[in-house]
């Protein structure tokens, strides 16, 4: 433990951090600075998943800085609650029993797959964040790579997952109504894009 590398943001040593939702709330200390207490957000939503610091505030009052830290954590909790309130369906996570097992070798492009809920942080371990329409990546094609690109049925966001995190294709009888409706909408939008692309050539 003594040799564990300290996490630093500029000259501030990170002493507290809580990752809730899309942001991590961070508290740092550098007693040599005029404002020794730092509170900021960190996000990782970029191609390299690199740490990106935003909304940094310094203070010379520990309790004031800690109040800012806890206020920001509370705001993130409320943000996630509001985000999940839009999902008006059963949020019970899907398991391997709900899937056609994935052999990790064949193509899953064009299929609705189930992402293992356990790879997500605790606040995202719900069915809403598991169903994905796979559309590309070496891992999705059954190649040597692991990358699986696809669109989340619940919120329409396009992202990357790992093939090892795919439990399998959702069984037709386990596909909920909301997911069928979302899939039809996504496929319709993709068809419209391809048709427009052909017209513009």
Explain the overall architecture.
- The chain is of the alpha+beta class and 201 residues long.
- The chain is 24% helix and 31% strand.
- Strands 6-11-7-8-9-10 form a six-stranded antiparallel beta sheet, covered by helices on one side. Strands 1-2-3-4-5 form a five-stranded antiparallel beta sheet, with helices on one face.
- Strand 1 and strand 2 form a beta hairpin.
- The radius of gyration is 21 Å and the shape is elongated.
- The mean pLDDT is 92.
For the structure shown, list the relevant keywords.
single chain; 201 residues; six-stranded antiparallel β-sheet; elongated
Uncertain ranges: none
Helix-strand category: alpha+beta
Strand arrangement, largest sheet?
6-11-7-8-9-10
Characterize the overall form.
elongated
Task: Give the overall average pLDDT.
Answer: 92
Alpha plus pi helix count: 2
Determine the N-to-C terminus distance: 61 Å
- Strand portion, in percent? 25-35%
Rg computed from alpha carbons, rounded to a whole number of angstroms: 21 Å
Write the layout of secondary structure elements.
Blueprint: E1 8-9, E2 12-20, E3 23-29, E4 37-43, E5 52-59, H1 62-85, E6 99-101, E7 112-115, E8 131-136, E9 147-152, E10 158-162, E11 166-170, H2 177-200
Antiparallel strand pairs: 1-2, 2-3, 3-4, 4-5, 6-11, 7-8, 7-11, 8-9, 9-10
Short description:
The chain has 201 residues and is α+β, with helices and mostly antiparallel strands.
């Amino acid at each position: 433990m003594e040799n564990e590398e300290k996490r630093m943001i500029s000259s501030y040593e990170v002493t507290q951090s809580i990752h809730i939702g899309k942001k991590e709330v961070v508290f740092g200390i550098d007693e040599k600075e005029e404002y020794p207490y730092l509170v900021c957000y960190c996000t990782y939503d970029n191609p390299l998943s690199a740490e990106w610091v935003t909304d940094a505030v310094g203070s010379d009052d520990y309790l004031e800085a800690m109040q800012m830290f806890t206020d920001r954590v509370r705001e993130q909790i409320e943000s996630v609650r509001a985000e999940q309130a839009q999902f008006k369906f059963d949020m019970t996570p899907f398991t391997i029993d709900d899937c056609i097992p994935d052999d990790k070798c064949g193509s899953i492009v064009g299929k609705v797959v189930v992402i293992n809920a356990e790879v997500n942080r605790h606040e995202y371990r719900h069915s809403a964040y598991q169903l994905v329409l796979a559309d590309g990546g070496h891992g999705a094609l059954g190649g040597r790579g692991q990358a699986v690109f696809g669109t989340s049925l619940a919120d329409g966001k396009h992202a990357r997952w790992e093939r090892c995190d795919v439990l399998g294709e959702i069984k037709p009888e386990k596909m909920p109504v909301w997911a069928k409706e979302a899939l039809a909408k996504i496929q319709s939008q993709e068809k419209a894009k391809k048709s427009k692309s052909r017209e513009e050539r």
